Amino acid sequence: MTEPAAAPPTAYPKPRTCPHSVDPEYARLRAERPITKVSMLGGNTAWLVTRHDLVRQVLGDTRLSSDRRHPGFPRFTVNQGNILQDLPPSMIGMDPPEHTEARRAVLGEFTVRRIEALRPRIQQIVDDRIDEVLAGPRPAELVAALSLPVPSLVICELLGVPYADHDFFQQRSSRLVHRSTPFDERLRAVRELRSYLDELVAAKERELPDDLLGRQARKQREAGEIDHPGLVSAAFLLLIAGHETTANMISLGVLALLENPEPRAEILADPAKTLPAVEELLRYFSIVEGATSRVATEDVEIGGVLVRAGEGVMALASAANRDPAAFERPDELDINRKARHHVAFGFGPHQCLGQNLARMELQIVFDTLFRRVPDLRLAVPAAEVPVKSEANVFGLYELPVTW
Ligand code: HEM
């Protein structure tokens, strides 16, 4: 096995300044060195994987660990250190067999059937928010009015977290996904969120209500296996993963459909096209850059390169989802393509647990918004829409619209 010549030292991941494109260097690397060693923003080095088949190989290989506490785990932030130091790992940071068990404990809450049962309530939430937008002043700012509240309300109701506290957890989770947030502030955000959820979970354990956290507490009690810190970590992960990601996909999807009248008209004319459009938008934007990293627990060969035990590997969905070997004309948004094999939700054992929920929320928002507000348009030129260029979850800060 040969190791390709070292890449010029440069920081990864690259900032994203345009919603529609990823850094052109990813395409060059994918063609020339689809697995290559790079230096990270945090100062350490890791292998960057940009080819679709290799990204799936990495994410499917359990010799590559998700344990964030490992010193070789790729660090994405300028501030070194493990901010999750005083929170026990949740499933996203576990390996089998612990991961299998932790995932299985909540899997039943996220099946297609369970999520389908939430459809009427999600529709109601979306309609209520659109009513409010339509009753308010023009222009409206859609991130605050729709993109954030919809997934936040949904995950709050599912978990049994009071939505009245949304400012508190949204502010903290937004600090966590920004690479430039100073270490102390990130640590404070983790600690404040943890102590909030600590109290909330303790109340669930006493009262055993019929919501996700209450049901988990009841199951633990019945099995005689009470794991309070584990439930706090699970709540932490589900609360953050459940709203931050979907909110950004709503904003970006609405932006793309406002800029592209043809796919918007196709969806309006035939709602059966919305789900494939959601799949394509997930591929096209590939918003999650931080989560799909791993560290090798033994020597592993990837794409003809020897990755040594202890080295970090970053499987970049945004690059893999623009791989021409997997998607024809990958830089085009084409809602009629078959995009389901994208890796925007990851791949393998850690593939997104909330994907059915996210798909449904996106489908309902796009269908309902453009049907109810057919003359919706951007209130500023697209180039002026502020993007989260330095966040581990890509998205928009604001989306000013009018109608
Ligand atoms: C895992 C993306 C929405 C909960 C993941 C992973 C990705 C991802 C890429 C894989 C991480 C890895 O390989 O280590 C997204 C995107 C979303 C979304 C793009 C929205 C558009 C959600 C929602 C929830 C959720 C709504 C919860 C209700 C989770 C959980 C995991 C996960 C619990 C960890 C699964 C495991 O480790 O087994 N997500 N996600 N996600 N996601 Fe999502």
Automatic annotation (TrEMBL):
Q: What is this protein called?
A: Cytochrome P450
Keyword Iron set for record: yes
Q: Which domain of life is it from?
A: Bacteria
**What does the similarity note say?**
Belongs to the cytochrome P450 family.
**Compositional bias ranges of the Pro residues kind:** 1-12
Keywords assigned by UniProt, alphabetized: Cytoplasm, Heme, Iron, Metal-binding, Monooxygenase, Oxidoreductase
Which Pfam families does the record associate with it?
p450
